[in-house]
Design brief:
It is built from four helices and four strands. Strand 2 and strand 3 form a beta hairpin. Helix 3 packs across helix 4. The longest helix has 19 residues. It is elongated, with a radius of gyration of 24 Å. About 35% of the residues lie in helices and about 25% in strands. It is of the alpha+beta class.
Protein backbone atom coordinates (compact mmCIF):
# COMPACT_ATOMS: atom_id res chain seq x y z
CA UNK A 1 0.00 0.00 0.00
CA UNK A 2 2.78 2.45 0.86
CA UNK A 3 4.46 1.91 -2.51
CA UNK A 4 1.17 2.80 -4.22
CA UNK A 5 0.47 5.78 -1.94
CA UNK A 6 3.52 7.90 -2.84
CA UNK A 7 2.71 8.36 -6.57
CA UNK A 8 -0.95 9.06 -5.69
CA UNK A 9 0.02 11.82 -3.22
CA UNK A 10 2.58 13.25 -5.61
CA UNK A 11 -0.06 13.58 -8.30
CA UNK A 12 -2.75 14.91 -5.94
CA UNK A 13 -0.51 17.68 -4.55
CA UNK A 14 1.41 18.35 -7.74
CA UNK A 15 4.73 17.34 -6.18
CA UNK A 16 7.77 16.95 -8.39
CA UNK A 17 10.80 14.85 -7.69
CA UNK A 18 10.99 11.87 -5.38
CA UNK A 19 8.24 11.41 -2.80
CA UNK A 20 8.39 9.29 0.31
CA UNK A 21 5.58 8.40 2.68
CA UNK A 22 5.92 7.39 6.29
CA UNK A 23 2.98 5.89 8.14
CA UNK A 24 3.27 5.87 11.92
CA UNK A 25 0.81 4.31 14.33
CA UNK A 26 1.01 6.63 17.34
CA UNK A 27 -1.55 4.75 19.42
CA UNK A 28 1.13 2.62 21.08
CA UNK A 29 3.37 5.58 21.78
CA UNK A 30 0.68 7.94 23.03
CA UNK A 31 -0.95 5.31 25.19
CA UNK A 32 2.26 4.13 26.83
CA UNK A 33 3.17 5.24 30.31
CA UNK A 34 6.86 5.84 30.73
CA UNK A 35 8.23 4.11 33.78
CA UNK A 36 10.20 6.31 36.11
CA UNK A 37 8.67 9.56 34.90
CA UNK A 38 7.91 12.04 37.60
CA UNK A 39 5.35 14.68 36.82
CA UNK A 40 5.45 17.77 38.98
CA UNK A 41 3.50 20.99 38.70
CA UNK A 42 5.37 23.88 37.12
CA UNK A 43 6.57 26.36 39.72
CA UNK A 44 5.92 30.03 39.10
CA UNK A 45 8.96 30.95 41.20
CA UNK A 46 12.40 31.55 39.69
CA UNK A 47 15.11 28.92 39.59
CA UNK A 48 18.56 29.19 41.14
CA UNK A 49 21.43 27.74 39.14
CA UNK A 50 24.23 26.28 41.21
CA UNK A 51 27.56 25.45 39.55
CA UNK A 52 29.88 23.06 41.37
CA UNK A 53 33.21 21.61 40.22
CA UNK A 54 34.83 18.63 41.91
CA UNK A 55 38.34 17.20 41.82
CA UNK A 56 37.99 13.45 41.37
CA UNK A 57 40.19 10.48 40.58
CA UNK A 58 40.14 8.98 37.11
CA UNK A 59 38.16 6.03 38.46
CA UNK A 60 35.13 8.15 39.41
CA UNK A 61 32.25 7.81 36.95
CA UNK A 62 30.66 11.19 36.17
CA UNK A 63 27.17 9.66 36.00
CA UNK A 64 27.48 8.20 39.49
CA UNK A 65 28.57 11.56 40.88
CA UNK A 66 25.62 13.21 39.11
CA UNK A 67 23.21 10.81 40.81
CA UNK A 68 24.77 11.60 44.18
CA UNK A 69 24.40 15.35 43.60
CA UNK A 70 20.78 14.93 42.51
CA UNK A 71 19.98 12.91 45.63
CA UNK A 72 21.73 15.45 47.88
CA UNK A 73 19.74 18.32 46.36
CA UNK A 74 16.52 16.42 47.01
CA UNK A 75 13.15 17.80 45.94
CA UNK A 76 14.69 21.15 44.99
CA UNK A 77 16.65 19.58 42.10
CA UNK A 78 14.89 20.35 38.86
CA UNK A 79 17.91 19.43 36.72
CA UNK A 80 21.47 18.30 37.37
CA UNK A 81 23.96 17.87 34.55
CA UNK A 82 27.65 17.71 33.71
CA UNK A 83 28.85 20.70 31.69
CA UNK A 84 32.67 20.58 31.81
CA UNK A 85 35.51 18.09 32.23
CA UNK A 86 39.10 19.11 32.80
CA UNK A 87 41.92 16.59 33.18
CA UNK A 88 45.27 17.04 34.91
CA UNK A 89 47.14 14.03 33.52
CA UNK A 90 50.28 14.76 35.53
CA UNK A 91 48.37 14.37 38.80
CA UNK A 92 45.96 11.66 37.62
CA UNK A 93 42.83 13.58 38.47
CA UNK A 94 39.97 15.32 36.74
CA UNK A 95 37.68 18.19 37.49
CA UNK A 96 34.01 17.53 36.77
CA UNK A 97 31.74 20.57 36.73
CA UNK A 98 27.99 20.23 37.24
CA UNK A 99 25.12 22.68 37.07
CA UNK A 100 22.14 22.09 39.33
CA UNK A 101 18.94 23.99 38.65
CA UNK A 102 17.11 24.36 41.94
CA UNK A 103 13.53 25.50 42.36
CA UNK A 104 10.94 25.34 45.10
CA UNK A 105 7.27 24.93 44.18
CA UNK A 106 6.04 27.42 46.75
CA UNK A 107 8.66 30.15 47.16
CA UNK A 108 11.80 31.80 45.84
CA UNK A 109 14.86 30.07 47.27
CA UNK A 110 17.08 32.16 49.53
CA UNK A 111 20.87 32.32 49.31
CA UNK A 112 21.24 30.36 52.57
CA UNK A 113 18.98 27.59 51.20
CA UNK A 114 21.08 27.32 48.03
CA UNK A 115 24.28 27.34 50.12
CA UNK A 116 22.85 24.51 52.24
CA UNK A 117 22.24 22.42 49.10
CA UNK A 118 25.83 23.12 47.99
CA UNK A 119 27.18 21.94 51.35
CA UNK A 120 25.01 18.79 51.36
CA UNK A 121 26.11 17.99 47.80
CA UNK A 122 29.79 18.56 48.62
CA UNK A 123 29.58 16.34 51.72
CA UNK A 124 27.81 13.53 49.83
CA UNK A 125 30.27 13.73 46.91
CA UNK A 126 33.23 13.52 49.28
CA UNK A 127 31.77 10.66 51.28
CA UNK A 128 30.65 8.48 48.34
CA UNK A 129 33.25 9.31 45.68
CA UNK A 130 36.17 11.05 47.38
CA UNK A 131 35.26 14.11 45.29
CA UNK A 132 36.55 17.43 46.63
CA UNK A 133 34.58 20.59 45.87
CA UNK A 134 36.73 23.19 44.14
CA UNK A 135 36.49 26.49 45.98
CA UNK A 136 37.11 29.84 44.31
Amino acid sequence: MVGELAPELAERYDLTGRVAVLLVDLAGVLGAVAEGWQIRPVSRYPASDLDMAFFVGDDVVAGALEVTLREAAGELAEEVGLFDVWRDASRGRRSLAFRARLRAPDRTLTDPEVAEVRERAAAAALERHGAVLRRA
